[in-house]
Specification:
Shape: elongated
Strand order of the largest sheet: 11-10-9-12-13-14
Number of strands: 14
Strand content: 25-35%
Largest sheet: 6 strands, parallel
Radius of gyration: 20 Å
Structural class: alpha/beta
Helix content: 25-40%
Distance between the termini: 30 Å
Number of helices: 8
């Protein structure tokens, strides 16, 4: 079969298409004929060799990709045979290929009404957005939420979900007018361009100086540090990425002054670090 692999980390040019042996499903797994493979920002970071996980420097070469949708063509020992022929979405290792092996616990049947591409787009990003708002921020009825990078997939899903989960106001930030327009269409109450000087003051003006209860943050650097300034008393800043490639610095004394909290959520990536354990639990709760 054909697979997209890397022999060393670097730019897009390190991705190569190679012929490799089609895998056989071990016990407890299924073999999926891949129809659609997801491409996530974490895949890009892993390809560059800068992903947050300590396992990002694993032995090379390897096939990229952590989520696929397609049709089950074979099952390993201990897996129900009637799964063969089913349309599924699954977490995998080596999803940039014609076939991929998935743990049965991380494989989910798809109704005919759900397109393969839609299923893949939701798997990692959708679970991450849910966990940011529900499991980490513990969003409460009537609170104000600010979502950074609101035009990205996780950001847009968090933005779209915040109102139904109880937020009374959702402020979206992005870097261009077109991205801010998209955020407005997805339900943002207000929009702010976070590349412009004074963006944090603009947020404080919008909230009459109170700040926001929850910040969903994936930029890092100065944006992350300024985000602490716009948190209300008892506010929660939830970090799930470092797009700027510079970690934000926070001091405990800053948080103590207004009883604030900084939490973290690593995107669900079963092939990278502790994401495997979270992925085994999260889809079972959210996606059956």
């Amino acid at each position: 079969m054909k697979a997209v692999r890397i022999h060393h980390t670097g730019g897009p040019d390190v991705l190569v298409v190679e012929d490799v042996e089609t895998p056989k499903p071990p016990p407890g797994t299924v073999l999926v004929k891949v129809g659609v493979s997801g491409v996530n920002y974490t895949d890009v970071m892993a390809r560059q060799g800068i992903y947050m996980s300590r396992e990002s420097g694993r032995d090379l070469p390897r096939t990229m990709g952590t989520e696929v949708a397609g049709v089950v063509t074979a099952v390993g020992e201990g897996v129900e045979p009637d799964l063969v022929g089913s349309r599924v979405v699954a977490f995998v290792e080596g999803g940039y290929a014609e076939y991929a092996v998935a743990d049965r616990r991380l494989t989910f049947r798809l109704p005919e009404s759900v397109e393969l591409g839609d299923a893949v787009a939701f798997l990692v990003q959708g679970i991450t957005a849910w966990e940011l708002l529900v499991d980490r921020a513990r969003l409460r009825e009537g609170e104000t939420v600010l979502v950074h990078s609101a035009a990205g997939v996780v950001g847009s899903l968090a933005l779209h979900s915040a109102h139904p989960l109880g937020a009374s106001r959702v402020i979206a930030t992005a870097s261009t007018a077109s991205k801010l327009a998209l955020a407005s269409r997805l339900g943002a109450t207000d929009t702010v361009n976070y590349t412009e000087p004074g963006w944090a003051d603009r947020v404080l003006d919008l909230t009459d100086g109170r700040g926001v209860d929850v910040v969903i943050e994936a930029v890092g650097g100065d944006i992350g540090e300024e985000s602490l300034r716009i948190l209300a008393d008892n506010g929660r800043l939830v970090v799930y990425g470092v797009a700027s490639k510079r970690m934000s610095a926070f001091a405990g004394s800053q948080l103590m002054q207004r009883n604030q909290g900084v939490l973290a959520d690593q995107p669900v990536e079963p092939g990278l670090g502790h994401g495997r354990d979270r992925a085994a639990a999260a889809p079972a709760r959210r996606c059956r």
